[in-house]
Write a structure and sequence with these properties.
Elements (H helix, E strand, L loop, with lengths): L3 H7 L9 E3 L1 H7 L2 E6 L9 H9 L4 H6 L1 E4 L3 H13 L3 E5 L5 H11 L3 E5 L4 H15 L2 E2 L6 H7 L1 H9 L6 E5 L4 H13 L4 E7 L4 H8 L22 H7 L3 E7 L1 H15 L9 H5 L5 H4 L3 E6 L9 H12 L2 E9 L4 H9 L5 E7 L7 E9 L5 H11 L3 E4 L5 H6 L2
Parallel strand pairs: 2-10, 3-4, 3-6, 4-5, 7-8, 7-10, 8-9
Antiparallel strand pairs: 1-2, 11-13, 11-14, 12-13
Helix pairs in contact: 3-5, 3-8, 5-6, 8-10, 9-10, 10-12, 13-16
């Protein structure tokens, strides 16, 4: 088994050394020296190509002739697809049905005629089970996305590069955690070459697989996950990854998906950096770390991927607004008389608040009819004012909680 340092030396031209960039604005904002490891600028716009190549470089001639199979929510698939084309190995890629179209299209673009894409299941975990079944049928070689020593060592080359690119001692490295592959790879490298560096793992709050595994001392399968941060939405971390990570983290941080969305928008507006949800995890975690801990420290954030589907922009903005308390939905019974809606706008809403969704159902012979009303606020504090105004003006209403079935049925 080769180290990450050895594997780095074998990388072909299509596995790039990505830049490590000092970010002045973020550094001033958080009172630290913040560097971004730009894996979104990798050849497949994520670090996954590193592990994919490391594993596929070990294929025998017989294994190459039989082809490979992998499962992925997108980024690992792109890495395997590019390796298939460059190494001229046939590949079958199993992806969840819920995978953003942009990632599916990019997989086909990278692999061209060398790959076949199969959509199966709603999650990575379901797709992964199907991929392993196909592996037996086709007698092909399975290329794991994270739970494999070669893949882990390949992802660890991110840390090898960081240590060669920076001129100051690193106090913290923030890494996203999905299945745990890149975290395990980085943990191995800093344990060997940079013992003073502390590792902070970041997970989406809707898929805390490593956090829960650390609580009980072993990998466990979560019963359900939020699939929005698709690059890190894994029900169960890898067994080998967990063993390497269980004593490696200084801290685990859970970030709300809405906060991730706000970070995606912020990074685009401020720096012109286009990130996917998993790629923004480490940046979203910064303001959840106590200031005294990171003041004047040298911090590296792994910016893990930039495969964002532009068609998700409205969803990203809406999730951010829900998180910030700036968007809300009500079920309101409007009196069926002239002026009722005008009264609602003038007497209930604030002068700068806006109606962004309105669905009214008129009932013949009824004195009032229900309407679903979506409101965007300029200040989250205005919500209580609107509720009070509705009551004072005699409107019969129900506030739709985001986790309610009615909300999901009417709005999502």
């Amino acid at each position: 088994m080769h180290s990450s340092q050895d594997i780095k030396k074998t990388f072909p031209n299509f596995v790039r050394e990505t830049p490590l960039e000092f970010n002045k604005k973020l550094s001033e904002r958080y009172g630290a020296n913040i560097y971004l490891k730009r894996e979104d600028l990798q050849s497949v716009r994520s670090y996954k190509i590193r592990g994919a190549f490391a594993r596929m470089s070990q294929l025998s001639d017989d294994e190459k002739s039989n082809g490979v199979i992998c499962a992925s929510a997108g980024n690992h698939a792109q890495g395997v697809a590019l390796c298939c084309k460059e190494m001229q190995v046939k590949g079958t890629i199993v992806m969840p049905v819920t995978t953003p179209k942009q990632k599916i299209q990019m997989v086909q673009s990278f692999g061209e005629e060398w790959v076949e894409i199969i959509l199966f299941g709603d999650t990575f975990d379901a797709a992964n089970v199907h991929a392993k079944e196909l592996t037996d049928e086709k007698k092909a070689c399975y290329i794991p996305p994270f739970d494999d020593p070669w893949v882990i060592a390949g992802q660890g080359t991110v840390a090898v590069e960081i240590l060669s690119q920076i001129e100051v001692p690193i106090d913290f490295i923030f890494t996203p955690v999905g299945g745990g592959g890149i975290a395990a790879g980085i943990a191995d490298v800093i344990k060997d070459q940079s013992q003073q560096t502390k590792l902070i793992g970041v997970e989406p709050s809707g898929a805390p697989s490593m956090t829960e595994a650390l609580k009980v001392g072993k990998p466990i399968e979560l019963t359900s996950i939020d699939k929005f941060v698709d690059g890190a939405a894994v029900k169960k971390v890898g067994n080998l990854n967990f063993e390497k990570c269980k004593n490696a983290f200084f801290q685990m941080v859970l970030v709300d998906e809405g906060k991730v969305c706000g970070t995606i928008l912020q990074l685009y507006n401020e720096f012109g950096i286009v990130l996917e949800p998993a790629g923004a995890l480490t940046l979203a975690a910064l303001d959840q770390i106590e200031g005294d801990l990171i003041n004047d420290k040298n911090i590296v954030l792994i910016v893990s991927g930039g495969n964002n589907d532009i068609t998700r922009t409205n969803e990203i903005r809406e999730r951010w607004m829900f998180y910030e308390g700036l968007k809300h939905y009500f079920l309101i019974r409007f009196p069926q008389r002239p002026g009722a809606l005008k009264e609602f706008v003038s007497d209930v809403m604030g002068p700068e608040d806006d109606i962004v969704y309105f669905q009214f159902s008129s009932k013949t012979g009824r004195e009032n009819g229900p309407a679903v009303v979506g409101i965007e606020l300029t200040d989250a504090k205005n919500l209580e004012k609107i509720k009070n105004n509705l009551s004072e003006k005699g409107f019969d209403f129900e506030y739709l909680e985001q986790n309610s079935l009615l909300f999901q049925h009417l709005v999502e």
